[in-house]
Write a structure and sequence with these properties.
Layout lengths: L4 E6 L3 H20 L4 E3 L1 H10 L14 E4 L2 H4 L4 H7 L3 E2 L4 E6 L2 E10 L6 E6 L2 E6 L2 H6 L3 E8 L5 E8 L2 H15 L2 H16 L11 H14 L6 H5 L3 H14 L7
Helix pairs in contact: 2-7, 6-7, 6-8, 7-10
Length: 260
């Protein structure tokens, strides 16, 4: 295992506090059970931005929950659900767990990888019924980015947590597929944040992942973010200079689909 990268963050809201508390619970359960996973979703993007020194180059975004991405075997582990309920989590749906800590509403979602290159909802794995998401397989196959995070909450509580993040390229693959399914402003913003992080990490189109799901993600990113007529950059930011920067980052980091 690689040495963890150390990052520090300050929460700015009650919902962000709840997200980091949930992250700490995910990390604790994974450590206790000895299971492999990746922290994915908004928290993961925020940490990757910090790890790759992109925070001053992109806009920030808060998130309110913690997403745990794991293999079929881990999701089906009979110890997983009892470990979460032992912390006080109630199961709200097939893969969502919630608990209250003071004024904070903590949410953990458990997700599995798709082997079909598209979202596969409501799949049973052990005691869980969850979504299988495209790109998570890339994240589990590539070495994780291990991070030791120091998060300061709004009430000055200090959390120290060590988590495995996806490789930033795998995070981009996941986020591209999410954007294609939702066309949301938040996903567009996260794509900008991840593109800048990937650039800062030294990645280029030449080392883009080669699995079919990653090739599909390259198509999505070029379709939605690569040209002045693409809507993605406008969803990410209203600043035209930053929109042009996003298009330049696509050309640098993501291979042209016609050449893959």
């Amino acid at each position: 295992m690689s040495e963890p990268r150390h990052v520090a963050l300050a929460s700015t809201s009650n919902s962000e506090d709840a997200a980091w508390l949930a992250v700490a619970d995910v990390a604790g359960v994974a450590t206790d059970l000895g299971i492999d996973y990746r922290l994915i979703g908004g928290n993961s993007v925020a940490l990757l931005v910090q790890v790759h020194d992109a925070a001053t180059q992109v806009l920030g975004r808060a998130t309110a929950d913690a997403d745990m991405g794991a293999s079929f075997e881990v999701c089906a582990d009979p110890r997983l659900v009892p470990a979460l309920t032992a912390l006080g989590y109630d199961r709200q749906s097939g893969n969502r767990f919630t608990r209250t800590q003071g004024t904070h509403a903590l949410v953990i979602d458990v997700l599995a990888p798709s082997y079909l290159g598209r979202l596969i909802p409501n799949q049973t794995h052990g005691d869980l019924v969850l979504d299988e998401i495209p790109g998570l397989l890339e994240a589990l196959l590539l070495p994780p980015v291990n991070v030791a995070a120091h998060a300061v909450l709004t009430d000055t509580t200090q959390l120290y947590v060590q988590v495995p993040l996806p490789d930033v390229r795998a995070a981009l693959v996941m986020k591209a597929h999410a954007y294609a399914g939702r066309l949301s402003d938040n996903d567009a913003l996260d794509i900008w944040r991840l593109l800048q992080s990937a650039s800062n990490a030294g990645h280029t189109a030449a080392d883009w992942p080669t699995r079919s799901t990653a090739r599909d993600a390259a198509v999505i990113l070029h379709q939605h973010f690569a040209t002045p007529r693409s809507g993605g950059p406008r969803r990410a930011t209203s600043n035209r200079t930053n929109q042009a920067r996003i298009r330049a980052l696509i050309a640098q980091v993501v291979p042209n689909p016609t050449r893959i």
